[in-house]
Amino acid sequence: MAIATAKNEQVARWEGNIEELRGLVSERAFTGETMLLNMGPHHPSTHGVLRVLLELDGEQIVSCLPDVGYLHTGIEKNMEHKTYEKCVTLTDRMDYLAPMSNNMAFCLAVEKLVDLDVPERAQIIRVIGLELTRINSHLVWLGTHALDLGAMSVFLYCFREREYILEMFEILSGQRMMTSYIRPGGVWRDIPPEFMPKLQQFLEYFPPRIDDYEKLLTNNPLWIDRTQGIGIIEPETALAWGVSGPSLRGSGINWDLRKAMPYSGYEQYDFDVPVGEHGDVYDRFLVRIREMRESVKILRQAAARLPAKGPFRSNNRKFVPPPRSELGQSMEAVIHHFKLWTEGFSAPDQEVFVAIESPRGEVSVYLHGTGGNRPRRVHYKTPSFMHIGALPVMTQGHLIADLVAIIGSIDIVLGDCDR
Amino acid sequence: MGITSKLGNLGIVTTTLEEAVNWGRTGAMWPLLFGLACCAIEMMSTQASHYDMSRFGMELNRASPRQSDLLIVAGRVTRKMAPVIRQLYDQMAAPKWVISMGDCASCSGVYNNYALVQGVDEIIPVDVYVAGCPPRPEQLIHGILTLHEKVRGERIAHWATN
What we know:
Helix content of chain A is 48%, strand content 12%. Chain A is α+β, with helices and mostly antiparallel strands. Chain A has a domain at 113-314 and 384-418: Orthogonal Bundle (Cytochrome-c3 Hydrogenase, chain B), CATH 1.10.645.10. In chain A, the strands form 3 sheets. A 4-stranded antiparallel β-sheet of chain A has the order 1-2-3-4. A 3-stranded antiparallel β-sheet of chain A has the order 7-8-9. A two-stranded antiparallel ribbon of chain A has the order 5-6. In chain A, helix 16 packs antiparallel against helix 17. Chain A starts with a strand and ends with a helix. Chain B has one domain: Rossmann fold, CATH 3.40.50. Chain B is built from 7 helices and 3 strands, in the order αααβαβαβαα. A 3-stranded parallel β-sheet of chain B has the order 1-2-3. In chain B, helix 3 (38-47) packs across helix 6 (137-152). The mean pLDDT of chain B is 86. Classes of the chains: A alpha+beta, B mainly alpha. Chain A binds chain B through residues 41-44, 48-49, 69-75, 77-78, 89-90, 93, 96-97, 140, 143-144, 155-157, 159-160, 162-163, 166, 176-178, 414-415, 418, and chain B through 33-38, 40-42, 44-45, 48-50, 63, 75-76, 78, 80-81, 84, 88, 110-111, 113-116, 133-134, 136.
């Protein structure tokens, strides 16, 4: 971190010229009355490579300028050179804490574009994957958020439970993190026989662990001191800044795309949407903790509803490869297999827009086909980017130490933000 | 008196300065608390309860490059981030080592495009490459043990240039 006053040359060297900051920071910074402090991109509490330029009056934040792009990977551009099936692997690597949600958003967009059906059983498998992803992501959030505020042991407990979920992902897809399990038309493969017993074990094992976290934090006076009344964002302001997901619900707005615009059969599940009251760090914490319990509820229902046998992906051979067993017997299956894996399928020259509820908020995909086998444009509208935009509003007048709590509470992933 | 009263009749251990120092260096190699992308999450898993990297003397991740010996480049290195990584590497005190974790850091992985540095070895010297997207914690631990092996083989003549 470079500490300097405005008169100091070090600040003047900050990307060339201090004059560039005119209008972004208050006039007091130019007289040296307030201090400019650079936080990040290498900082243990910015959850990745976020850089924030702070203008400080003593320890109080006068203005806060987030600087993103340190993880800009050009994924959207890369997708324009890949077939739709191959794009799925890239979506994992955007929001790396919720890979399945990103797969899902993209696959829904492709399915909408080419009008592809998804069998009922595949939809239930997808819901299982999505809700496990939600718990997985919330566990990393809780662990790192608590670690930032000085509660080391929560981190260790959360990662213990997370390993359990990653093992399940590995059984399901062969990979711990970058699953690419959800594909256009269904899922990659059927649920292996050892998965369901493991899921049942997890559903028994996990709820008492949430109680443990709550015992450690919810009524802990230190935790309450650090989080209550910090980073308040009013409901109207939150909406205006495009805040979504648990961060929006923490402000008291009951908006969850799983309820408001159900996809993948979410309307058939019975679950509540936890909502906060004050819109501070503490309420966002409570909302996410309760969301984990709701996810367990959904997982239980999904496990009960899942038929033992049935198709796990669409039978439309123009878009979905035939099963291996057919390749030895059917010439048509061989042709379909060859065509799909060499040039992929074509999608019409139309645009679609699909939004789903990821653990962080609303992930939306804009997809424009070309009539050929590659997209013309893919755009992800991601919650982390919106939340970082709202960061200056939330941090106004708080202390630097609170900034760490606020960044943790909006649950940003820089891969999701910068792509 | 002294050491004999504590150790009893254990005899004498002889070693070379080289071996003693190298052994010490592998015993407490503190990594820099520095993550870039997906691989950083697997690095956190490696440090957390299940895999427990402190078994290899790495329980302490320092947030300051001045206090760390090992830079684990975990994730994709963008052009915007490259000067920062170089600066962090320069700020580390010798002896220092670098592990390039994952395909993106090693060769930019699936992204051959305008935004990424095509391998972190274009800007800093790398000791061990760990393959995978992202590598499993076991793979990272294997990379660390490989680095330990490398450090144990270092000669006095190389210390100064490290």
